[in-house]
Design brief:
CATH architecture: 3-Layer(aba) Sandwich
Shape: globular
CATH topology: Rossmann fold
Structural class: alpha/beta
């Protein structure tokens, strides 16, 4: 049976709410622990090679469930306005806020209350003043037209059941000349209906993945120019199976 959009959204929300609770609560084992991050396939905090201890709040590190480091590819400059789609515990927001400096500003957007609460607590702990976390969905971004210069996102767009809406909204809120720099899971082949029907695979960032061709077509249809997809990691069946199991 094919999962409905509402069922998929609830599965995603439940997964990330659980991750936020583990990162915020006594169940975590400390800054060096990996008990809060399902990372069997190299996802999560392990992709931030140059992140130093104490650079960001520990809870934002432990709640990281991304598949890349979008701030490393976005080329952020002082004074820019940035939006992070699916900001989670705030890790990429804090890194971006440092890069754009006091004259810039970063919005973090998330639909999960638990993640928003965690991110705001992390923001207070970090003393980051040029950022704000807002509740909302990436298919309907609660920002005005042309209000940001850069959009980043880390393994979140694949979770949406309406990716054309995500791309349209991203294009709408970007100012002329703005740019989109995201890390995401990309499928090597078009997924079948059977492959897209597993809720655990959706929540595990797999069943909703587009191929590179589908990604480029979606971005172009939304109005983006010169889009490109650059592969960084290729995962085999064993790693993918482990990721699904760990995030179920």
């Amino acid at each position: 049976m094919t999962a409905t959009a509402d069922e998929i959204k609830q599965a995603v929300r439940d997964r990330y709410a659980g991750a936020a609770r583990r990162a915020a609560g006594p169940g975590c084992c400390g800054p060096a622990a990996d008990c809060c991050s399902a990372d069997p396939a190299g996802f999560g905090i392990s992709v931030y090679d140059d992140l130093q201890p104490g650079e960001v709040p520990d809870a934002s590190r432990l709640a990281s469930l991304g598949c890349g480091n979008p701030t490393a590819i976005a080329g952020l400059r002082p004074g820019e306005r940035v939006l992070d789609l699916g900001s989670g515990g705030g890790l990429d927001v804090f890194l971006a806020a440092r890069q754009v400096g006091p004259t810039g500003f970063v919005y973090g957007l998330d639909m999960t209350d638990e993640m928003l609460n965690l991110a705001r607590a992390n923001q207070r702990a970090a003393g980051v003043h040029n950022a704000e976390f807002r509740k909302g969905e990436i298919e309907k971004i609660p920002l005005p037209d042309a209000s940001v210069d850069v959009i980043i996102s880390n393994c979140v767009i694949n979770l949406s059941t309406d990716k054309p809406a995500v791309f349209r909204e991203a294009h709408r809120v970007l100012a002329p000349g703005g740019r989109l720099a995201v890390s995401d899971v990309v499928a090597l082949h078009p997924l079948s209906e059977e492959e897209r029907s597993d809720l655990a695979s959706w929540a595990g960032c797999l069943a909703g993945a587009l191929t590179a061709e589908e990604y480029l077509e979606g971005l172009t249809a939304a109005g983006f120019t010169h889009p490109r997809v650059t592969p960084t990691h290729v995962y085999g069946p064993t790693a993918i199976s482990a990721l699904i199991t760990a995030t179920a």
